[in-house]
């Protein structure tokens, strides 16, 4: 069992919105950061996510119902990454913490951000006005998860109030308290955690800052955002080299192009109007970002490697054992039915029905539910008293049923008829086509005899 993360005498990458995604965290660790924080993630959004082991990227993804990856991490940072959440509810905070605790080194509660997206609903700096809730959230987390719990606060109007709150927080059993230095919670433009904006511009400034403040550890925000190599004890690297390394991580882990562009523009700072800066700002894809830095060959090589890994994982007969999970007595996978991946007129439901007939089983049955908040659908198929469904919600009942059929077929190692697997699925495909032709003839006879068609679809 890995040792618990210590917050004594460390230098950390502070949590920063849009900056603290996986590429930046890995880069900071490469340059010498002891601990890295992810950007603040709101509990209401995270509680809807499901955990997915992404075998192509070799990451763990927490995916929202709309398929957005809210949080992505990997083995390289597992013992160093702190998951920061925005929350105002102890129970919901615990639910989110338990969702991610096996993949992170610690859980942090943001009690310092003064911006509306964080304070809305009583989160962020708004919590500082409700010490009882602060204590309730932290006690619930400390007693409910196996990893250390920390929090980040702001300086209150008086030193006495700040110390009183800190002592109360300390009694909850948290592993560390981070203080956003130099600004009160009402301030809309606060200094960075650790004072990096004015006081920490080189690695040598970190020790001086610790000695001046008496703090055990230091977080770096803007100074790290502008040049993550500030964590290097040997000194800053040329910014262009740092951006190249950042982009390599962004490509390797399929970071969203707009997020990568944002981070690169922060590093460029006053050079965003340069030739390079204008190309970065104009980029809409990871390929265009790569071209701006002369890395188009690396982009193509990375894409080829990822495609090869994806093809190997989805090759005929491959069973997704490492992404199969159990939800009670239901076998689940995180997948969606993509119609373009299957030949016209043939679907996974047809393949599953034909397989069941050949096995002399009762035909599959589907139970579908609709979610109120976004009217999305999720279906569970039952085959021989065993249940299967996709953990992702679909835009239609039809697609939800097809997704559950895919989960069943892949779990059982049965051909599903995807384009590219025709040879593997051909005998079953031919049987389905024969049955469909026979069904069409039967319908025609029914119309001839009754004057009305006998409708039905799969």
UniProtKB/TrEMBL annotation:
<dbReference type="GO" id="GO:0017150">
    <property type="term" value="F:tRNA dihydrouridine synthase activity"/>
</dbReference>
<dbReference type="GO" id="GO:0000049">
    <property type="term" value="F:tRNA binding"/>
</dbReference>
<dbReference type="InterPro" id="IPR044463">
    <property type="entry name" value="DUS2_DSRM"/>
</dbReference>
<feature type="region of interest" description="Disordered">
    <location>
        <begin position="418"/>
        <end position="458"/>
    </location>
</feature>
<keyword id="KW-0819">tRNA processing</keyword>
<dbReference type="Pfam" id="PF01207">
    <property type="entry name" value="Dus"/>
</dbReference>
<feature type="compositionally biased region" description="Acidic residues">
    <location>
        <begin position="449"/>
        <end position="458"/>
    </location>
</feature>
<dbReference type="InterPro" id="IPR052582">
    <property type="entry name" value="tRNA-DUS-like"/>
</dbReference>
<dbReference type="GO" id="GO:0050660">
    <property type="term" value="F:flavin adenine dinucleotide binding"/>
</dbReference>
<protein>
    <submittedName>
        <fullName>Dihydrouridine synthase 2</fullName>
    </submittedName>
</protein>
<dbReference type="InterPro" id="IPR018517">
    <property type="entry name" value="tRNA_hU_synthase_CS"/>
</dbReference>
<feature type="compositionally biased region" description="Basic and acidic residues">
    <location>
        <begin position="430"/>
        <end position="441"/>
    </location>
</feature>
<dbReference type="InterPro" id="IPR014720">
    <property type="entry name" value="dsRBD_dom"/>
</dbReference>
<feature type="domain" description="DRBM">
    <location>
        <begin position="347"/>
        <end position="414"/>
    </location>
</feature>
<keyword id="KW-0560">Oxidoreductase</keyword>
<keyword id="KW-0285">Flavoprotein</keyword>
<dbReference type="InterPro" id="IPR035587">
    <property type="entry name" value="DUS-like_FMN-bd"/>
</dbReference>
<dbReference type="GO" id="GO:0005737">
    <property type="term" value="C:cytoplasm"/>
</dbReference>
<dbReference type="InterPro" id="IPR013785">
    <property type="entry name" value="Aldolase_TIM"/>
</dbReference>
<keyword id="KW-0694">RNA-binding</keyword>
<keyword id="KW-0288">FMN</keyword>
<dbReference type="Pfam" id="PF00035">
    <property type="entry name" value="dsrm"/>
</dbReference>
């Amino acid at each position: 069992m890995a040792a618990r993360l210590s917050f004594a005498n460390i230098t950390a990458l502070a949590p920063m919105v849009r900056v603290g995604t996986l590429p930046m965290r890995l880069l900071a660790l490469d340059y010498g950061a002891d601990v890295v924080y992810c950007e603040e993630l709101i509990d209401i959004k995270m509680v809807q996510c499901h955990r997915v082991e992404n075998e192509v990227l070799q990451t763990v993804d927490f995916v929202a119902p709309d398929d957005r990856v809210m949080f992505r991490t990997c083995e390289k940072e597992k013992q160093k990454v702190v998951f920061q959440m925005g929350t105002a509810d102890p129970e919901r905070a615990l639910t989110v913490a338990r969702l991610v605790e096996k993949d992170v080194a610690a859980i942090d509660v943001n009690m310092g951000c003064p911006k509306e997206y964080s304070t809305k609903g009583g989160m962020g700096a708004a919590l500082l006005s409700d010490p009882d809730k602060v204590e309730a959230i932290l006690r619930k987390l400390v007693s409910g998860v196996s990893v250390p719990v920390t929090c980040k606060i702001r300086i209150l109007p008086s030193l006495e109030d700040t110390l009183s709150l800190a002592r109360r927080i300390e009694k909850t059993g948290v592993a560390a308290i981070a203080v956003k230095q130099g600004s009160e919670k009402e301030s809309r433009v606060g200094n960075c955690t650790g004072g990096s904006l004015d006081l920490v511009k080189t690695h040598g400034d970190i020790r001086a800052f610790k000695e001046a403040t008496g703090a055990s550890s230091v977080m770096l925000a803007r100074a790290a955002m502008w040049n993550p190599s500030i964590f290097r004890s040997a000194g800053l690297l040329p910014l262009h080299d740092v951006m190249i390394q950042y982009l390599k991580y962004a490509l390797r882990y399929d970071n969203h192009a707009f997020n990568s562009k944002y981070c690169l523009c922060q590093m460029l700072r006053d050079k965003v109007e340069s030739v390079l800066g204008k190309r970065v700002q104009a980029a809409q894809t990871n390929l265009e970002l790569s071209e701006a830095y002369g890395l188009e060959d690396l982009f193509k090589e990375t894409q080829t490697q990822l495609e090869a890994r994806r093809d190997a994982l989805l090759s005929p007969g491959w069973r997704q054992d490492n992404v199969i999970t159990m939800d009670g007595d239901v076998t689940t996978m995180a997948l969606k039915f993509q119609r373009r991946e299957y030949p016209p007129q043939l679907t996974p439901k047809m393949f599953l029905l034909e397989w069941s007939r050949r096995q002399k089983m009762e035909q599959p049955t589907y139970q579908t539910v609709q979610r109120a908040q976004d009217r999305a659908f999720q279906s569970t198929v039952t085959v021989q008293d065993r249940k299967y469904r996709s953990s992702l919600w679909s835009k239609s009942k039809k697609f939800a049923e097809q997704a559950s059929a895919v989960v069943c077929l892949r779990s059982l190692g049965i051909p599903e008829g995807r384009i590219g697997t025709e040879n593997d699925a051909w005998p079953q495909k031919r049987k389905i086509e024969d049955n469909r032709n026979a069904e069409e003839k039967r319908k025609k006879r029914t119309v001839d005899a009754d004057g009305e068609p006998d409708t039905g679809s799969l």
